[in-house]
Specification:
It is built from 25 helices and 18 strands. By secondary structure, the chain is of the alpha+beta class. It folds into 4 domains: 155 residues, Glutaredoxin (3-Layer(aba) Sandwich), CATH 3.40.30.10; 331 residues, Glycosyltransferase (Alpha/alpha barrel); 60 residues, no CATH class; 78 residues.
Length: 677
C-alpha cells in the first residue's frame, strides 16, 4: 500500500500516515480513483490538536479489520481542516444542515463528483448511546451505494445543488445608508448584555469560549461612547478567564475553551489564534484601565507564544495538543501535563509549600483521580512567595511528557500573532516582542509569498505547503504588517499590506455587490464557493479584510480601499444586531469607521526623544482603530506623513480624520487628551 501522507506538510496527516487505511490527500487524483473503481469517497476532516480525532483514529483507523473493509469499498481522503478551511467549510455546512450540529472529526461520504450524501462527526467502534458504530456506518453506506445507487445519486445531487445555490447569499450594497451607525452598535451592546453572565463573565452557558473579538468591540465602544456597561463586561470576563482554569497559571496562555460555565475545566489544547487575539485584548484592556492584571496576563501570554509556539524558522506553530502521556496511568490523557494532585504538589514543593499552593491555586480535586487544574481565585498576599512557588511548579511540570505540537505555520494566524506581539512590544517596552513579530513577518514573505505576490496558507520546517491562501490569510497578514508599520515606521510593511489588500479587491471581492468570498476567483472550484462573514474561533476573512482595508485607507487616503471597507461592513448592520457574539471583529471595525478612524501622523528625526514620546502617546490611545504613522517630515512613501512639517523645528503630531487635520502639537500629554476627546 502506497503511503501518500508520509511527505505531507500537515502534522495531522502525518499522524495518520502509518494507519492501515489507504489514505489519499484531497485532490483530483482521489476522486478520479473513486470514479475508476465506482466507489464512494470517505472524507475525514480533523486537525492535529483535536482530542476526538485522536480517539477515532485509535479506535477505528488503526483497526486492521475496519481499515480492510474501508479500503475495499471506499476511497479514503484525509483533510487537515487548518490547511484546507475551504473544504472544511463547504462540507461542515452540509453536516450542520443535515444533523443540526457539527464538529471534528467530520465524517462525510461523497460521490466521485464530490457531492455529499451521508454525514456525521465522531463514530465509536461499537454502538453507543444511540449512535451506530463506525463499522455499521461503513456497512450501511456501502450497502446503499451498491443496492440503491440511483437513490443515493439523487440525494447527493439534490444536496450538491442546494449547497451550490447558497453561494452569494450575502449580498451587500454600496450606499452609505447601509453602514452600521450609532443605533446599530448600541443595539449590539444591548443584545450582548442579554446573554452576558454577570456572575461568572463571558456570554451564554457551558461550554464557554473566550469571546476575544466581542471584547475588542466592547473596548472600542467604551472608548468612543464612555459606556461603563461595555467596559464592565470586558473587565469581568477577562478577570474570570485569567483567574480560571482556562488560563495556564504557571506558563501563561489560554486553553481553547472551558467545558463549564465557570471557566474552571478547560479543553486543554492551546491554539495560536486564541492566544494572539487574547494577548491583544488584555493589552488593550490594560491600555484602557492601567490595571495590573491585564498587563501581567498580556506579558505572560506573549512569553508563552515565544517560549512554546515559536518555530526555529521564526514563525509560530498552530497549536499544542490537549493530550499527553500520563506516566501514572501509562497512557495519553487529556490535561495530564497541566493537572496536579496534592501528592504531586507535595513531591514538587514539600509539605509546607504544597499546603500553601493548594490554597493559592484552589486545588480541590477538579477531575477524577483527584487531580486539579490550577486557578488563582485572588491575588496572592505575598507576591514573592507566590512567584517562587509558581517557578518551582513550572520547573517540575517541565519534567513531564509534554503535549505534542502542531508545528505547521498558518499564514493567517501568524498575521494575528505579528499584530499582537508588535503592539505589546511597543506598549510594554519589550523590544524582543517586536523583533519576534518582525522575524515571523520575514518568514511569511520569504516562504509563504509566491513570485507573483500570492499567499500560500501553510509551511512547515521552512517548506511551503501547496495550498493556496484563503481570504483570512491575506487579511490577517495585512493586519500584522500594518501593526508592524505603526510601531516601527518601516514603510515597506505598509507597502506589502497594500499589495495584499489589492489582491483581496482583485480576487476575493464581488465587484457588483461588494461581497467577499473566502476563496479566490481562480482557486480550486469546489461544489460551492465558500463565503461566511461571521466570526468563529478567529475573525472571518470578511471582517478581517474590512478592518485592514479601513486601516490602510487611513494611511493612504485611498478612496478605493475605504469604499471597499464600507461596502463590506454593510453586512454588520444586519448580523451585528442579530448575532453580535459572531460578529465581534466586524463590529470593532464599525466602531473604527464611526470614529473616523482617527489618523495620527508623528513627524520628527529618528531617535528624537520628543518624537518617541509622541509616538508612544499615539500608540497608547484607545481611540477605536486609530491609525498611527511615524517618520521624518516630508516622507513621501506614506501619504499620511506627506506635507506634515515640524512644529517650530521640533517633532510634532497631527490628529486627522479623512486627512483633514487639527493644528499640530509637540506635547505628548496634549496629544493624549486630544485622542481621548
Amino acid at each position: 500500500m502506497v503511503n501518500r501522507l508520509a511527505d505531507a506538510t500537515s502534522p495531522y496527516l502525518q499522524q495518520h500516515a502509518d494507519n492501515p487505511v489507504d489514505w489519499w490527500e484531497w485532490g483530483p487524483e482521489a476522486f478520479a480513483e473513486a470514479a475508476r473503481r465506482g466507489v464512494p469517497v470517505l472524507l475525514s476532516v480533523g486537525y492535529a490538536a483535536c482530542h476526538w480525532c485522536h480517539v477515532m483514529a485509535h479506535e477505528s483507523f488503526e483497526d486492521e479489520a475496519v481499515a480492510g473493509y474501508l479500503n475495499e469499498r471506499f476511497v479514503a481522503v484525509k483533510v487537515d481542516r487548518e490547511e484546507r478551511p475551504d473544504v472544511d467549510a463547504v462540507y461542515m455546512e452540509a453536516v450542520q444542515a443535515a444533523t443540526g450540529q457539527g464538529g471534528w472529526p467530520m465524517t462525510v461520504f461523497l460521490t466521485p463528483e464530490q457531492e455529499p450524501f451521508y454525514f456525521g462527526t465522531y463514530f465509536p467502534p461499537e454502538p453507543r448511546h444511540g449512535m451506530p458504530s463506525f463499522r455499521q456506518v461503513l456497512e450501511g453506506v456501502g450497502k446503499a451505494w451498491t443496492e440503491r445507487r440511483a437513490e443515493v445519486g439523487e440525494v447527493a445531487g439534490r444536496i450538491g445543488r442546494d449547497l451550490a445555490e447558497r453561494a452569494s447569499v450575502y449580498a451587500v450594497g454600496s450606499g452609505l445608508a447601509e453602514l452600521p451607525g450609532e443605533d446599530e452598535l448600541h443595539r449590539a451592546v444591548v443584545e450582548l448584555s442579554r446573554t452576558y453572565d454577570e456572575r461568572r463573565g463571558g456570554f451564554g452557558g457551558a461550554p464557554k469560549f473566550p469571546p476575544s473579538m466581542v471584547l475588542e468591540f466592547l473596548l472600542r465602544h467604551h472608548a468612543r461612547t464612555g459606556s461603563e456597561a461595555a467596559l464592565q463586561m470586558v473587565e469581568r470576563t477577562c478577570a474570570a478567564m485569567a483567574r480560571g482554569g482556562i488560563y495556564d497559571q504557571l506558563g501563561g496562555g489560554f486553553a481553547r475553551y472551558a467545558v463549564d460555565a465557570t471557566w474552571t475545566v478547560p479543553h486543554f489544547e492551546k491554539m495560536l489564534y486564541d492566544n494572539a487575539l487574547l494577548l491583544r485584548v488584555y493589552l488593550h484592556l490594560w491600555r484602557a484601565t492601567g490595571e495590573e492584571l491585564p498587563r501581567r496576563v498580556a506579558l505572560e501570554t506573549a512569553d508563552f507564544l515565544l517560549r512554546e509556539l515559536r518555530t526555529p524558522e521564526g514563525g509560530f506553530a498552530s497549536a499544542l495538543d490537549a493530550d499527553s502521556l500520563d506516566p501514572e496511568r501509562g497512557k495519553n490523557a487529556e490535561g495530564a501535563y497541566y493537572a496536579w494532585t496534592p501528592g504531586q504538589l507535595e513531591e514538587a514543593l514539600g509539605a509546607a509549600d504544597a499546603a500553601r499552593a493548594v490554597e493559592l491555586f484552589d486545588v480541590t480535586g477538579t477531575f477524577e483521580h483527584g487531580s486539579s487544574v490550577l486557578q488563582l481565585p485572588a491575588d496572592p498576599r505575598d507576591t514573592a512567595e507566590y512567584e517562587e512557588i509558581r517557578r518551582r511548579l513550572f520547573e517540575a511540570r517541565a519534567q513531564r511528557p509534554a503535549p505534542a505540537r502542531d508545528d505547521k505555520v498558518v499564514a493567517a494566524w501568524n498575521g494575528l500573532a505579528i499584530a499582537a506581539l508588535a503592539e505589546a512590544g511597543a506598549l510594554l517596552e519589550r523590544p524582543d516582542l517586536v523583533e519576534a513579530a518582525e522575524r515571523a513577518a520575514d518568514l511569511l514573505v520569504a516562504v509563504h509569498f509566491t513570485a507573483d505576490g500570492r499567499v500560500l496558507r501553510t509551511s512547515r520546517d521552512g517548506r511551503a505547503g501547496a495550498n493556496a491562501g484563503v481570504l483570512e490569510d491575506y487579511a490577517d497578514v495585512a493586519e500584522g504588517f500594518l501593526a508592524l508599520y505603526a510601531v516601527g515606521g518601516e514603510a515597506s510593511w505598509l507597502q506589502l499590506a497594500g499589495e495584499l489588500l489589492d489582491l483581496v479587491l482583485l480576487h476575493f471581492t464581488d465587484e457588483k455587490s461588494g461581497a467577499l468570498y473566502d476563496t479566490a476567483d481562480d482557486a480550486e472550484q469546489l461544489i460551492r464557493r465558500p463565503q461566511d462573514p461571521t466570526d468563529n474561533a478567529a475573525p472571518s476573512g470578511w471582517s478581517a479584510a474590512a478592518a485592514a482595508l479601513l486601516t490602510y485607507a487611513g494611511y493612504t487616503g485611498s478612496d478605493r480601499h475605504r469604499t471597499a471597507a464600507e461596502r463590506a461592513l454593510g453586512i454588520v448592520s444586519t448580523l451585528g444586531t442579530r448575532a453580535p457574539r459572531f460578529t465581534g471583529w466586524g463590529l470593532a471595525a464599525a466602531e473604527a469607521l464611526l470614529d473616523g478612524p482617527r489618523e495620527v501622523a508623528v513627524v520628527g528625526a529618528d531617535g528624537d526623544p520628543r518624537r518617541a514620546a509622541l509616538h508612544l502617546a499615539a500608540l497608547r490611545s484607545t481611540a477605536p482603530g486609530a491609525v498611527v504613522a511615524v517618520g521624518a517630515p516630508g516622507d513621501t512613501e506614506v501619504p499620511l506623513l506627506a506635507d506634515r512639517p515640524l512644529l517650530d523645528g521640533q517633532a510634532a503630531a497631527y490628529v486627522c480624520r479623512h486627512f483633514v487635520c487639527e493644528r499640530p502639537t509637540g506635547d505628548a500629554a496634549e496629544l493624549e487628551q486630544r485622542l481621548r476627546d
